[in-house]
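Fill in residues.
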């Protein structure tokens, strides 16, 4: 599963909102509605976000090439 069937929102959108707005997973879920209706997507959403945690982390300027 790569999206919330109830809201039609992709997990990528949740990840994007986390990065863009510097939100926690719970805050992004609340804004997008993912996981708030039937909750079936929550385990897959958390797995998706966990696998993408490193790419979403901003690199400090002193460590950038």
């Amino acid at each position: 599963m790569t999206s919330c069937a109830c809201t039609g929102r992709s997990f990528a959108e949740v990840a994007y909102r986390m990065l863009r707005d510097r939100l926690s997973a719970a805050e992004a879920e609340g804004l997008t509605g993912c996981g708030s209706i039937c909750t079936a997507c929550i385990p897959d959403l958390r797995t998706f976000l966990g696998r993408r945690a490193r790419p979403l982390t901003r690199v400090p300027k002193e460590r950038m090439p």
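Helices lie at 11-21, 25-32, 42-51, 53-56.
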